[in-house]
Every structure is written in structure tokens, then in C-alpha cells.
Amino acid sequence: MIAFLIRRLMQAVVVMFVISLISFSIQDNLGDPLRELVGQSVSEEERQALRDELGLNDPFLVQYVRFAGNALQGDLGTSYFFKEPALDVILKKLPATLELVFGATLIIILLSVPLGVYSAIKPHSWFSKTVMGLSIVGISVPVFLTAIMSIFLFSVELNWLPSYGRGELEPMFWGWESGYLTRDGLLHLVLPCFSLASIMLPLFIRLIRAEMMEVLQSEYVKYAWAKGLSPMRIYFLHALKNTMLPVITVGGVQIGTMVAYTILTETVFQWPGMGFLFLEAVNRVDTPLIVAYLIVVGAIFVVTNTVVDLIYGLVNPTVNLTGKKS
User: Fold this and answer.
1) What CATH number corresponds to the domain at position 105?
2) Is 148 helix (H, G, I), strand (E, B) or coil?
3) Torsional class of 55: left (φ above 0), alpha (ψ -120 to 50), beta (otherwise)
4) Which residues have CB under 8 Å from 57's CB, separation 6+?
5) Span 266-323, pLDDT tens digits
6) DSSP code for 224
7) pLDDT tens-digit profile of 27-41?
8) How many folded domains does the chain comprise?
9) Within 13 Å of residue 203, how many CA atoms lie on the same side as its CB?
10) Domain contains 73
11) 22 belongs to a structural domain
12) Residue 69 near residue 77, CB atoms below 8 Å
């Protein structure tokens, strides 16, 4: 386990280096940041002086080495618009995004596991066929369209749920505030969380169903039936445990992917999270904020995948994490 963690840490360093290099290299293609920093009345000489002061005229390698050195100290640059450290600006928006990801993940787990298992156990029932049919529709409909339709139905027509914003917040820890602690905050979370979960939920239902049906045909499950074990023990102790191994692997990647999908969800619901902040930064050509966002999201992917590998080893102790032959 220690050898695995050391190897994954080294891999994470390489991955973060590549992410930082790519993120930093695209900033020249996003436009001129001076457009947002100065007005039209500023002369060209003053613009060039400001570019020299900001180091924008330095060679790319010099700029990247300076950026990488500061990044190792936790400094990802200063936002041109907010006049604050870019990392601090993102961390202020991070709780809102994590709320959506957590809520969507909870919905996916609570719905996909029972629906996928039932569809595998009784694949020819009308309910299973309905679930499979709806899952095809769910995969086909983009998340922003689901969000717009849910707002129209539940906010405009039925007036059951709010259509935008985070609602009332309560402090949790480290100065972060959450809507999970208030009724108004929970109501504001319902539509964004279900919209975000809609793109992943059908995928997990179909994945669990396919894996479960394959496991139910395995020899050890047939042996369990021959021993006279109860159906509940066979389904949920023997079959489901091995079904969840590939699901956990895919789930770790998809949870990281949901952080990227929050851009669309947060835009539709005007949710003040990292995704909405990123789009605003692109419109303002706030390159330090854009680069910092990409690095933070990349770090979330790296950490998530490492944790998933550890969980995979705990669920199935026979998995060799070190990669050495036994």
C-alpha cells in the first residue's frame, strides 16, 4: 500500500505538471488581458509599460518558470478582475460546486444501485423495460436541456421549487457556508442536483445492470444457488459486491467529470460556483483565474482517482495495488 501511494504521488506530480503546462500555454489564445485592465483612452506606450510590469512580454519559458515557482508556494496568480489571489477566489466558490456534486452523487447512488440490481434480477418485467427505456432517453438529453425543462415544469408551471441561486446558507467549517443546513437552501439544491445527476444516472443504471447480469451467470453464483443460500444473500452479498468493482472505477472518473458538467448546470441555474466563475473569467479574459481553475479541477481529478484506487483495493483485497507478481 505504501509503495502504491508513493507511485501514485509521483504520477500525480507528472500529471499536474502536464496540466499546468497546458493550462498556462493556452492563455495567449484567450485574448488580451489588458482589455479588461485598462480603458480605451490609455495610450499604446502605457499599455506596453503595463505589459512589461506584468511580465506579459517575457518569453514563454520565463513566464512558465515564474508561474511554476509561485504555484509551488500556493500562488496561482492574482485575478485581474477581483484584484485578489486567484486561488482564494476559486476556493470561495468551491463549496457551492461541491454541494452540487455531492447532491448529484447521492442521487446517483440511491437510485442507480436498486434500479440497476432490480433490472438485472428481473430483466423481462415491465418495470425493468421502462427503466431501460428511460435510461436511453436520459443519456440522449443534454444536461442543460434537462435543467431548462425542469425549471419550466417545477418552477414556472407548478411553482414548487426555486429556479436560481443558492438560497439561505448556514456556516459549516473553515468559513464555508452550505445550503444543506437550511430548508430554503435544500429547496434551491433540488433542481440543480437532479439536473446534474441526470447525465450520469442512466449510465450507472445500465452499467450496474450489465455487470450484475454477468455476475449472476458466473460459476460461484451458481454454486451459491446449489448450496441453498437465500436469494437476498446471493444477490446482495455475493453478486452485488463483485458487480460494484467496475462501477467504483467508472464512478471515480465520472465524479471528477461532474465537476466539469457543473459549468452548464451552474450557468442555467445562476449557481455561484466554480463553473459559473470560469465562464465569467473567460468573458473577462481573466487569464490567472482561468489557469487557476483548470489546475484546481485537474487536482480534483487526480485526488479522486487515487482515492477510488484505494477504495477498489479495500472492496476487493485480492487486487494487487503494487503491481508486483505474487
Assistant:
1) 1.10.3720.10
2) helix
3) left
4) 48, 51
5) 888 888 888 888 888 888 778 888 888 888 888 888 888 777 777 766 665 555 555 5
6) H
7) 766 666 666 666 566
8) 1
9) 18
10) no
11) no
12) no
